[in-house]
């Protein structure tokens, strides 16, 4: 599966070290080059990420997590399914403002749990950050990181399973 947008080179309006993302014609061409099932899955991911983001705005993390925890999720997903969920959620999150790592992890866990696949949300803090505390969330299924990137440099705090 192909990414939907790519970073555009830095311009004068960007802070140093940051790039802008833009969908543009090439991005739209990438969307239309997806298969029908990929477009449907991406649409589903967009709906889930937007719903989780909205829920986290008005409800506590524990209340949102409890919705996912009620789903029966006992089996392990295939690597192909894990990659598909990781791709779909990461691509959808580009379109949802403030779709943080926690929003993405909860969204991915929800999609996996709806399919009966077990996963955990791992929350950790960055080691050696000095005065500012930096937290991060990952979605992990069967010891594979689905969303969130590398765990290196972080101290593990808690895991929240889908059941």
Structure in words:
The chain is α+β, with helices and mostly antiparallel strands and 163 residues long. Helix content is 43%, strand content 18%. It has a 4-stranded antiparallel beta sheet. Strands 1-2 form a two-stranded antiparallel sheet. Helix 2 packs across helix 4 (79-93) and helix 3 (61-69) packs parallel to helix 5 (101-114). The protein is globular, with a radius of gyration of 17 Å.
What structural class do helix, strand and pairing data support? Answer: alpha+beta
Tell me the β content: 15-25%
Helix-residue proportion: 40-55%
Specify the number of helices. 5
Helix-strand topology string: EEHHHHHEEEE
List key phrases describing it.
43% helix, single chain, alpha+beta, 163 residues, two-stranded antiparallel ribbon
Indicate the topology.
Blueprint: E1 7-8, E2 20-21, H1 24-32, H2 36-58, H3 61-69, H4 79-93, H5 101-114, E3 120-126, E4 135-141, E5 144-147, E6 154-161
Antiparallel strand pairs: 1-2, 3-4, 3-6, 4-5
